[in-house]
Structure formats: structure tokens, C-alpha cells
Write a structure and sequence with these properties.
The chain is of the alpha+beta class. A 6-stranded antiparallel sheet has the order 2-3-1-4-5-6. Helix 6 runs antiparallel to helix 9 and helix 13 packs antiparallel against helix 14. It has 3 domains: about 170 residues, no CATH class; about 110 residues, no CATH class; about 90 residues, Alpha Horseshoe (Serine Threonine Protein Phosphatase 5, Tetratricopeptide repeat). About 40% of the residues lie in helices and about 10% in strands.
């Protein structure tokens, strides 16, 4: 499952009244709102709140607007694929927008821009400052920025944060980084009760292993830095101590001096990824660009190819993921099953179920893998025995 995130803005509202109204909304257990786990911030233009992880649904804004003397803007990220908003005042919907159209079915969401004039008037900004955010993403030419200085481009759901910043609600203040929860120990899955032929008696399903990649492996980054030689040894203490912003400044200059050195792009992508992890702000555009540079110089780099195939992503990138996973199947045969199952998911998400079934059947014939993902997708596609 990808990212589901909901943020409410109350321009001109009183924080105490907004908190009370949300508290009453939280009494409905179906919405899974936990007031003590929501994060509030009082901006000069009014209060805002990011709802807790696991909050469900999009029908928060309308009832809140009925009891508050201010507009209510609900912005959201849906499954990491796109972002959108609903704008309400006194129980009346003034505007809605989604960056991807026809996601669920034809016309859902509709292919229409947001009303920049209405939003701008309520938030006290110029319509020209936000209008480019409020146009559904094109099928092609993604990775273009709406405005100079933005952190996220079209095709990146975190464009929502740039939109909030333009309204005067700095997302960094609204959602500071939180400590990572400790990972619970792995527990064996229940023994399956059906007679899947590829599982021997008494076998348990496994989670797919979390393979290291160029954006997550500090060991790999340091090894690539060592391979660059003494000319770049000043970067070592910066990366070892987590001074990634300083390292980025040095890397920018180093890349200008040596634009054909793949290791420099790889290190810069690693630093961007660590900053994203610390701040919560997307650095996808920067990391994607640098990984593309590495692959142009090292097309079979397994660690970078892995990093370009995350578990969740926008649909516009599935075709590229399929290409990367196909390369990984050849370049890293030890983990071929993992890549082929991941490729089957991409085929399924792009409605090429024939190719997805072919991948799954090949994995089953080899009989080496018994993961939860494999069994789930086999059942989803109706393979015999599942």
C-alpha cells in the first residue's frame, strides 16, 4: 500500500474552535482519527492540521465547514499516485481538484483544472501564483516544474507541499520529521490451508526480502566514495557524520569538474535520499535525475536499478519499472524471482494481465520462492490452485 495523507487548512479560523470541531468528527470510529496523534500548527493565515497515519476517507471538510466560520481546504495524497483537494465553506463545495484524472473510472476524478481564482481569494494570494499547480498532469512531459524554486515536479504527489507553501502554509512546519518506529521482529505467517502445489507440507509464506539499493545502503555509498580516490577524501567525514547538505554543496562542484564520473552522481543521489528521509520532503526529482546519470554511464548497475523500482510509484513510471526489472533479472539472477514477481505486479497495474500471469507461472515452475506477494497476486489473477 502506498501513501495516504490528509491535511486540513482553516484560513482565518480560530485554532481552539477548529480543534473542537475535529475532535467531534473523531468520535466516528469509521474515520480512524486520533486527535492526540494529529499534528497542528498555527500559521499567520490560520491553523492547519495533518491527520494521523491511518485516517480514512475524504469527507472531513464538508461537515467541518458547517460548524466553522471559515473555509476548509482538505488536501490529500492518494496511494502515492496523485494529490488533490476539496474546498468547502458553510457546507457548500466551492472547488475540487485532482492532479490525475480518470484514475478510478472515466471521469473519476474529472479532467478539469482547479479554480485558482476562488482559492486565491480565500487564501490571499495572486491566482497566477497557484494556477499552474491546478492543472491535471499530462500523460507525457512529466518531471516539469510548475514554478521555479519548487521542490517537486509534475508526476510527483509531493507537489502538494509546494501548493501548500504557495498558499502560506509551509509544509515543513506542519509536518516535522518523526522518529522511525522500531521494526518488530519477523513472525512466521500462518500455515496455508489450501493445497498450493509449490509449497511443501509445513511450509510458511515469507515476506520478500528488502534488498539494499543505492539510496538505502550507506555501506555501498562509502565503498563508491573510496573507489573515487584521494581527490574526494574530504567527502568521507561529511557522509560518515550525516552532514549531507554540506556534502551536496561539495558534490555539485565536483560534478561540474568531472561530469563523467558516475560515482559522484550516485553519492549525490544518496545524500538527497537521506535528506528526504530526515525532513519528509520529497527529493524524488533530484534522486531520479542523478540515478539516470549513473545508469547512462553504468547501465547494468544493480544497486541503482533496484532504487528506481520502489514498491509504490506513480502509474506514469510503471513502464520504466518494467524495463528496469527486466534488466535486473539478467544482471542479478540470484534474485530473479523477486524481480519477476515485482514485474508481474507492474504488468497487472498496467492491465497487461497476460504478461503478469506468464511471469508468475515461470516463478512457480522454478519452485524456489514462496512469498506473500506471490500468493496474493496469483490469487488476484485467478491462477489454478489459488
Amino acid at each position: 500500500m502506498g501513501l495516504f495523507l490528509y491535511t486540513l487548512l482553516f484560513p482565518g479560523g480560530k485554532e481552539e474552535r477548529c480543534r473542537e470541531a475535529l475532535g467531534r468528527k473523531a468520535e466516528n470510529p469509521d474515520h480512524n482519527i486520533w486527535p492526540d496523534k494529529c499534528h497542528w500548527y498555527l500559521f499567520p493565515k490560520g491553523p492547519a492540521v495533518q491527520l494521523n497515519d491511518g485516517a480514512v476517507g475524504l469527507d472531513y471538510a464538508e461537515p467541518l465547514s458547517r460548524v466553522l466560520n471559515c473555509p476548509v481546504l482538505l488536501t490529500y495524497i492518494y496511494d502515492g499516485d496523485f494529490w488533490g483537494y476539496e474546498l468547502w465553506k458553510k457546507g457548500k463545495e466551492l472547488d475540487q481538484f485532482a492532479s490525475v484524472h480518470d484514475y478510478f473510472d472515466e471521469g473519476e476524478p474529472p479532467d478539469k483544472p482547479g479554480d485558482a481564482g476562488t482559492v486565491a481569494q480565500l487564501f490571499g494570494v495572486e491566482p497566477e501564483r497557484i494556477a499552474r499547480y491546478l492543472v491535471p498532469w499530462p500523460e507525457e512531459d512529466l518531471d516539469e516544474y510548475a514554478y521555479e524554486g519548487d521542490d517537486s515536479a509534475m508526476g510527483d504527489c509531493w507537489q502538494m507541499a509546494d501548493f501548500l507553501d504557495a498558499l502560506g502554509f509551509d509544509y515543513n512546519l506542519l509536518c516535522p520529521p518523526s522518529p522511525e518506529p522500531e521494526k518488530p521482529p519477523n513472525q512466521p505467517a500462518p500455515q496455508p490451508t489450501t493445497g498450493w502445489q509449490f509449497l511443501p507440507p509445513g511450509a510458511y509464506l515469507e515476506d520478500a526480502p528488502d534488498l539494499p539499493n543505492a539510496l538505502t545502503s550507506r555501506e555501498y555509498a562509502l565503498r563508491r566514495l573510496e573507489e573515487l580516490g584521494e581527490a574526494y577524501e574530504e567527502l568521507l567525514p561529511l557522509i560518515e557524520c550525516g552532514k549531507y547538505q554540506e556534502a551536496l554543496a561539495r558534490l555539485d562542484g565536483a560534478i561540474q569538474a568531472a561530469p563523467e564520473e558516475a560515482g559522484l552522481y550516485l553519492l549525490r543521489a544518496f545524500c538527497w535520499a537521506q535528506l528526504e528521509k530526515a525532513s519528509g520532503r520529497s527529493r524524488k526529482y533530484e534522486t531520479e535525475g542523478d540515478m539516470g546519470k549513473v545508469l547512462a554511464l553504468e547501465p547494468d548497475n544493480v544497486m541503482v536499478l533496484r532504487a528506481r523500482c520502489p514498491t509504490t510509484a506513480t502509474t506514469a513510471r510503471y513502464s520504466r519499472h518494467i524495463q528496469d526489472l527486466t534488466l535486473l533479472m539478467e544482471a542479478d539472477p540470484e534474485n530473479r524471482d523477486i524481480y519477476q514477481i515485482s514485474r508481474a505486479y507492474r504488468y497487472h497495474w498496467t492491465k497487461d494481465d497476460a504478461s503478469a500471469r506468464a511471469d508468475l507461472e515461470e516463478v512457480l515452475r522454478r519452485g524456489r520462492t514462496k512469498t506473500v506477494d506471490l500468493v496474493y497476486l496469483c490469487g488476484e489473477l485467478g491462477l489454478p490452485g489459488f
